[in-house]
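quick one before i forget lol
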Amino acid sequence: MYVSYKKLWKMLIDLDMSKTELIQKSKITTNVMAHMGKNEDIRVESLVKICTALGCTFDYIAEIIPDKK
């Protein structure tokens, strides 16, 4: 399984918000954003900061994708 952040990228497009703006608004690091760009795991604390900044819950920004067998 892996985490996909495609929902977040779509939300940013819909909000006309850049990744840099999200970094500033949510007070996450550029490293966190880089990890998300590669669909890598990040700390729940960072997800909470993003959700708080966007006024949403986890399921609006990420989803778990099962491995293909």
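fyi DSSP finds four helices and two strands in the chain.
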